[in-house]
Design brief:
Layout: H1 2-9, H2 11-22, H3 28-37, E1 58-62, H4 75-85, E2 89-94, H5 97-110, E3 115-120, H6 126-139, E4 145-148, H7 167-182, H8 184-189, E5 194-198, H9 220-245, E6 250-254, E7 259-260, H10 263-266, H11 273-280, E8 286-287, H12 288-291, H13 293-300, E9 309-314, E10 319-324, H14 334-348
The chain binds NADP nicotinamide-adenine-dinucleotide phosphate (NAP).
NADP nicotinamide-adenine-dinucleotide phosphate (NAP) binds next to helix 4 and helix 10.
Length: about 350
């Protein structure tokens, strides 16, 4: 069957994962059922009502704008809402306080018992990432789930981050790499901790190791696809390092298919090719709420596998309920992943 074939490609990681991921609910039944049969055949039926009780679990979601402008809310908003509804203590960490606080207000309106707050974090500013991570680590509390969701699709001309790096790579990849590695102490204190890296069906064919910052031939779409390949490589590399090092932190990847959010209007704009599709081919874009489901599956489903990759299960992976996603071959290259990790360590130091 399709799901089993895909999982068996990642067999070693998958097997290592089952215990970790299944044990989120603490149920031995989950462990054995998972090991015997792999992911449930009914994964396509999975929805927010299947999220187990998350009471007592601390979660951090990067990027979350809840402003319901023209029916668009970022994926982070829906991830945070669903997890807070399931009882988790959720922090939305984003660069824009106005939008992030609007997301928190909206969540509290629709879920009055939600334990949710906003934290200011600019992923395109390594100083901000360091200060944010230090606050969490210094609190002494554990972190049970980190969802590396925030992202930008670049503008049409190359922009740079506070630290002088190309803005798409700085935000989507470097900022999340720095955040995740810096937050390892808090994750190590977490209970059955997980990290979810958000990628895309759009990924580059290879990393540009000689030009990670797109100093030559910048193109916003290429820069975005490149950053999303990088995030997949990092998801799988983090999982390998966690397994080899006995960290006990599960690392997973997810993508939302194609969802109606602020990514395109805030990025290349409505007069770009993506913007044209956004404006005139609206049916291509599923609601953000549905696009958030694979991220939620990776973050909270007891049977999600460490090292696994989840995306919509319908219409060639573009939309629908969650399913197991097929990583591109370029993302399953441990040498490229290790090389990227080493280069990023040097860049964010
Ligand atoms: N929508 C899709 O079809 C699609 C497809 C594939 C992958 N994705 C991925 O899904 C993730 C969520 O995107 P979305 O579609 O929900 O888009 P979105 O509505 O634009 O949300 C992106 C979020 O990232 C935040 N962000 C941007 N730069 C940041 C920075 N420097 N520091 C901290 N936060 C920052 C944004 O903050 P502000 O609120 O301040 O703008 C926003 O909250 C992204 O990683 C994206 O690549 C989306």
């Amino acid at each position: 069957m399709e799901i089993n074939r895909r999982v068996s490609r990642r067999g070693v990681l998958g097997m290592a994962a089952i215990g970790t991921a299944a044990a989120v609910t603490g149920g031995a039944g989950g462990f054995f059922a998972g090991r015997m049969s792999g992911p449930p055949a009914t994964i396509a039926d999975w929805g927010v009502s299947d999220i187990p009780d998350q009471t007592g679990r601390r979660m951090l979601i990067t990027g979350g704008n809840g402003y319901p402008m023209e029916g668009r809310s970022g994926l982070g908003y829906h991830v945070a809402l669903a997890l807070a509804r399931a009882g988790a203590e959720v922090t939305i960490a984003s660069r824009n306080a106005e939008r992030g606080e609007a997301a928190v207000r909206l969540i509290r309106q629709v879920a009055p018992t939600a334990n949710v707050r906003f934290g200011r974090l600019d992923l395109a500013d390594l100083g901000s990432v360091r200060a944010f991570a230090a606050r969490i680590n210094d609190s002494g509390e554990g972190l049970d789930l980190l969802v590396n969701n925030a992202g930008v699709m670049g503008r049409r001309t190359r922009e740079t981050s506070v630290d002088g790096f190309e803005r798409v790579f700085a935000t989507n990849t470097m900022g999340h790499f720095a955040l995740t590695t810096l937050l390892r102490p808090a994750l190590l204190r977490g209970r059955l901790p997980r990290v979810v890296w958000v990628s895309s069906m759009r990924t580059a064919n290879a990393m540009r190791f000689d030009d990670l910052q797109f100093e030559r031939g910048y193109d916003y779409a290429a820069a975005y696809d490149h950053s999303k390949l990088a995030n997949l490589l990092l998801a799988f590399e983090f999982e390998r390092r966690s397994r080899d090092g006995g960290w006990g932190i599960a690392s997973l990847a997810a993508h939302p298919g194609v969802a109606r959010t602020n990514l395109i209007p805030d990025g290349p704009g409505l007069d770009s090719p993506e913007g044209w599709r956004f404006s005139y081919l609206g049916l291509m874009f599923q609601p953000a709420e549905q696009g958030a489901l694979p991220l939620l599956y990776a973050g909270a489903a007891p049977r999600a596998l460490a090292g696994g990759y989840y995306g919509p299960g319908g219409l060639m992976g573009l939309r629908g309920a969650p399913g197991v996603a097929q990583p591109p071959a370029a993302a399953e290259d441990p040498e490229a992943a290790a090389r990227l990790w080493t280069q990023l360590e040097a860049l964010v130091a």
